[in-house]
Amino acid sequence: MPSSLQDSFPSTPGKVKIDRSHYNLSRQINRWLSSSATLVFWSLFLLALTASFACLKTSFTVPQSHARGATTAAASWGGPAWEKQLRRSCETRRANAQVVLVTGAAGFIGTHVSLALKKRGDGVLGLDNFNDYYDPSLKRARQSLLARHGIFVAEGDINDGALLSKLLDFVPFTHVMHLAAQAGVRYAMENPNSYVHSNVAGLVSLLEACRKANPQPAIVWASSSSVYGLNSEAPFCEADRTDRPASLYAATKKAGEAITHAYNHIYGLSVTGLRFFTVYGPWGRPDMAYFAFTRNILQGKAITIYRARGGAELARDFTYVDDVVRGCVAALDTAQPSTGSGGRKRGSAQYRIYNLGNTTPLSVPQLVSILERHLRVKATRNVVEMPGNGDVPFTHANVTMARLELGYKPTTDLQAGLKKFVKWYLNYYGYEHNGKGKI
Ligand SMILES: O=C(O)[C@H]1O[C@H](OP(=O)(O)OP(=O)(O)OC[C@H]2O[C@@H](n3ccc(=O)[nH]c3=O)[C@H](O)[C@@H]2O)[C@H](O)[C@@H](O)[C@@H]1O
């Protein structure tokens, strides 16, 4: 990012380096004033001064501070070589091809969607901030995979309006596949601001750039099954109420649905929101249960399985990534163009929301049993009552609308999907079977 932009660039929540310079200063001054007559007085004075500095500093840093993750490396962009990479990445190889900006392209679903689009001849440009919410080396490995398929991932944050304007000025994108987000349900209690930063402020920044663009791209973006919150009637339909989120993560996704609706209404942006249901598969997210369970089982560590109060098992409508990718591509293909241009609405535009789930929820203990079979290792299960951390007891998608309007049909059950995931995991992390069925 050009340094001139640094000041106006909204804060990226990041690990806070504690500035101890004022403590050192106070120590030096203390030595200097070591006369016994004034020592007590100055010590008390400096103590008060130091404390007030510390308070001031805390009040500025608290909104950005967190124990782990979501720190973004300063990105640089621009220049002829960079522009050449954009141009190459956006080249198309079929008639009526789309040219798609994929945000969060180095993320799990972003990588799979980008590859699917590129393989059929669309132009694809990725955008990712490579934050450290989870191991960035996995994101870099996905970036290398994309590069091998001719997809360039520009490095930057969706809150960087100047970068977004540059990209949308430089390339006449037909679509934006917006997958960049702060994911994870329970991490929202650790680092709430990262959710506001990416899922609210970042979304608005992206929509601002899109509404000003000429042509305006159609937008397909990732909402979440978590918007159904505390609903108990299953399966979840798109028309069900979504005003009782159980986590801040869910609340920001719900906010995203409202925000995109406003931009659709005011500026004529074509918008399709996709409510994903616990998507899993190769190249997945290490913070998700299936991934973390696999890692712990292989390392001989106990896994924690949550159960609801009263003892009921938690269940999820686990959805295999290839099914979701087909849904994403179908959403792009059926998206009508935005109607505005250069910030002006010229007519009403399409606004859609679809569930993309599997339709067959399974319990978390069932997920673990399938993993045990594929890994041929028994898990040490530590079953505990679900803490009040934003989790919901179950999810279950009704996908009738997606089936009728997108031709969406999930075909991979959890057994088959986890088999592919485990195969990828063992290969990626260098595990080998010893020929006797053991790893
Ligand atoms: O579909 C969605 O809307 C959401 O799906 C997942 O959220 P979640 O369903 O909570 O997925 P996991 O974190 O993989 O948890 C799956 C299940 O395992 C349970 N779990 C998780 C972690 C753990 O240590 N033990 C455990 O039993 C959870 O309570 C949950 O029932 C993703 O992490 C969200 O980003 C996404 O938006």
UniProtKB/TrEMBL annotation:
Xref: Pfam families: Epimerase
Main location as per UniProt: Golgi
Family: Belongs to the NAD(P)-dependent epimerase/dehydratase family.
GO terms under cellular component: Golgi cisterna membrane
Protein name as catalogued: UDP-glucuronate 4-epimerase
GO biological process, one term: galacturonate biosynthetic process
Broad enzyme group: isomerase
InterPro entries membership: Epimerase_deHydtase, NAD(P)-bd_dom_sf
Topology class, membrane: Multi-pass membrane protein
Subcellular location: Golgi apparatus, Golgi stack membrane
